[in-house]
Every structure is written in C-alpha cells, then in structure tokens.
Write a structure and sequence with these properties.
elongated, mainly beta, about 450 residues
Length: about 450
C-alpha cells in the first residue's frame, strides 16, 4: 500500500483525464476548457499540503466562474479517517464507509454535489459517463493519464476490479498480497497551526493569528491584554452578602475614578437604554428585560459608559480610560457591535447566531440557544449549518461547524485570507472581514452608539 493511504488505484478506460497526486484524486472531461484549471487546483492543493476539504474548495472556486452546462468532474481526498467528495455535471462518485455506500451524482444538483463521508473508508470510485471496467493489471501510482474514472479499493486490492460490480464483495477472490490491508487509512491532514492557549484566570479566547506570524499585524485597541487581576470570578460575585451590600451605602461616590470596587451586580444606566439600540427592530421593552444579558466585568468612563476593561478608549464617547484609576465591576454586557453582510443584512451582536443556508431546523436554534441567520449563495457553497458566531465575555468568536467549503478571515490591514480550523473558536478583531464558503462575506464592526 502506498504512503498516501489509497492503496491500489486503478484507472478506468475512457477519453477523459484521471489524476492521483499526494493522496488527492481527480477525474474530469478532457474536452472541457477548464481541465487545465482543475489540474492546477489539484497540484496546488497537494503542494500546499491541503486535504480533501481544501481540494473541494479549490475546485468549487474554479467551477463557480463557469457559465452554461456544468462541467463533468469529480474529486476526492482524505479528511481525517474520512473522505471529502465533490462531483459536478454528468460525473458520479461512490464512497463505501461504515454506514454503507454513499453515492453522489452531479446531475442531482444545480451546481455540484459534495459530501464529507466519515471513516473508516473502504472504497472510492469516481466515474465519467463513458467509463469502462478497470483492467486487473492496470494501476495508477501517481500523475495524470487518459481515462474515464478511478477505482480505489484497499479492502480488495488483489481482486480483479472487473469483478467488483459483477459479484458481491464476499465472492471476490482473496488478496494475493499478505497480509490484507487494514480498513482504509486515509490518514489525517497536515496539522493546523496551533491556536495560542490563554493563560488563567481569564476565560476569554485570545485572538487567533495564522502562520506565518509576520503577515498578521499585532493586535491594537480593543483586544490588548487580560482583564485586570482585581476582577473576581463571576460565580463568586453572583452571591452578594449583607456586608457587600452595606459597602455601597457609605455616601455618594465622588466619580467613577473614585468608586470603590463592588463585586456584586448593579443596575447601570446603559441597561435601561439598551433596547433602543438595533435600529427598527428595537421596540421598547420592560426594564427587567436587560437583566437577561450576560454579566461581565467592565469599567465606566467619566460619562458612565460601560466598557471592556482592556480597551484604552471609551467605545461610546471616545474618552481616554485610565485603567489604573478605574475599578472593574460586574454589569450586563452591552451589544458588541454588528456583522455587516455583503447584501446589506445586519446581525446585531447581543446574542449568538447560527449562519447557514438552512439554519432554522438546527437543534441549537430549536432550543433557543442561538438565533438563525439565513445566508445563501448562488454557487451553493454555504452549508446548511455553516458557522456559529459565539459571544464570550467581550470577545466575538467564530466556530466553523465542519462546512465543506470552510470559513476564512481577513484580519484588519492584512491583504490575505486565512482558513480557520473547523469546530474550534477563533476570536476576531474589529475590522475583520469573514468569507463564508466561496463568495459570501461579512465585516465585524464594533462601534456602539448610545
């Protein structure tokens, strides 16, 4: 079995092109004008150490600019012990995994079909319409050849592939190679650059910097350091005692810079005014409603605006904050800004959001833990459950929910986009542009208006 984990790969007869490069597979119609672009996407992904998910994303970008009838092509590549597959036009694919055989046909979609099949995978077949049966002695160790499809069957590498469709799996001839190969070891993709782990006691995530480090400018402004050590744990501050309550009755404080530290929750002027933020959706609410907002530690400017204790200037009036003379206290968190989508839609960051083309049926939306944000794209690259926007303290985090086409971020002042790892929170800074799938974008703005 080869080092890329595919075992014996056999080309099927045909007039198209088939390719195997570093564990990545491609089948396409040689007569199409984009055949060279598809092969370039395959080689570029392999050269950069990308996995099957990265290959599917690159091929989707090539197909998205095509007009007319869908291009006949199919690609596959490992993602962990599973495999990512994309098919377009008259091409088809079949992947055998623990749940049985999964079949995809490009004709069943307006653009293309894609799937992430969990492992262990025991067979992959990519096929153009005119593909014939594989010759038992033919094999593709690497490169690009003329053909109509690819058959990869590690579990039965010694059996003639022509018998694969004619007889059941148990009737195939035993493998001549000893010992038989183990279940399809697709192998993990190249490791994702590590995300810095924040030091205790601060629970918030630090902003993620993709490698190489010098490409991303150092953080400035709102995310500039840990919460002052004077702030106690939230769980300890939610149980005020009589002594604590009495500590706030010793006379009217002279100003926010002289206000003594008070760990219990207090009503702030901003809490009563909070429903007025959010434009036309902000209808008047009872004063008790803002109490449902999460409690966070913050500081007041001299105009009584509640702020992130890490920022140097007030987010409302812009006045300078001198943290050494300010005492953090616990209060309801104000909205952290907005996400501005490229079609004009605005997501107000006062709660978590689930972004996708069909978020309403997601279980986290049904139980009320997040708000749905329906985002679609003409190229079909946005998944049903694509991205979660999670608020943690004063930070805005993005969590890609294992989408096929992924999520990318462009930090402020950086001309490049970077992939974020799936199912891991990544903190974004104000001014960050987020790409959802292939073509949809949104921008994080942290401005707050009183």
């Amino acid at each position: 079995m080869s080092g890329d984990g595919l075992g014996t790969v056999r080309p099927l007869p045909g007039s198209g092109l088939v390719a195997r490069v570093e564990g990545l597979l491609l089948v396409c119609d040689a007569a199409e004008t984009v055949a060279a672009d598809l092969l370039a996407a395959l080689h570029d992904t392999a050269a950069s150490g990308g996995d099957g998910r990265a290959l599917a994303r690159r091929v989707a970008q090539v197909l998205a600019v095509m007009m007319g009838e869908p291009v006949a092509c199919a690609v596959a590549g490992p993602v962990g012990d599973g495999v990512a597959v994309l098919v377009s036009g008259p091409a088809s694919a079949a992947v055998t995994g623990p749940g049985g055989e999964v079949r995809l046909a490009g004709r069943d979609a307006l653009t293309w079909s894609d799937r992430l099949v969990p492992g262990p995978v025991t067979g992959i077949e990519l096929r153009l319409p005119e593909a014939g049966p594989a010759h038992p002695l033919a094999r593709l160790d690497g490169g690009v050849v003329v053909g109509g499809g690819i058959l990869c069957d590690p579990a039965g590498a010694g059996a003639p592939p022509a018998a694969r469709s004619a007889v059941p799996r148990q009737a195939e001839a035993p493998a001549t190679e000893a010992p038989p190969p183990a279940p399809y070891p697709m192998g993990p993709p190249d490791p994702v650059p590590p995300i810095p782990v924040p030091p205790p006691p601060r629970p918030e995530q630090q902003a993620w910097h993709p490698e190489p480090g010098p490409q991303v400018p150092p953080q400035q402004g709102p995310v500039s350091g840990p919460i002052p050590a004077v702030a106690p744990r939230e769980t300890d501050a939610l149980e005020p005692t009589g002594a604590m309550e009495a500590s706030g009755t010793g006379g009217e404080p002279a100003g926010p810079r002289e206000r003594p530290f008070e760990p219990e929750s207090r009503e702030r002027p901003f809490a009563a005014e909070q429903p007025a933020q959010g434009g036309p959706q902000a209808a008047p609410e009872p004063e008790a409603a803002p109490a449902a907002q999460p409690l966070v530690y913050g500081v007041d400017c001299k105009n009584d605006h509640f702020n992130d204790p890490r920022v140097p200037y007030c987010a409302v009036c812009g006045i300078a904050l001198v943290q050494r003379s300010l005492a953090p206290y616990q209060g309801p968190r104000p909205p952290l800004g907005v996400l501005l989508l490229d079609d004009g839609m605005t997501l107000r960051l006062d709660a978590d959001h689930l972004v996708g083309r069909d978020p309403d049926r997601a279980p986290e939306v049904a139980d009320g833990s997040v708000r749905p944000a329906k985002v679609t794209s003409p190229d079909g690259s946005v998944s049903r459950r694509h991205l979660r926007v999670a608020l943690d303290g004063w930070d805005v985090n993005l969590i890609d929910l294992g989408s096929v086409n992924g999520t990318q971020i462009q930090p402020p002042g950086d001309p490049n986009f970077y992939d974020i790892p799936p199912n891991e929170p990544v903190t974004i800074m104000p001014g960050t542009t987020v790409r959802i799938g292939v073509s949809r974008t949104m921008r994080y703005e942290s401005h707050r208006n009183r």
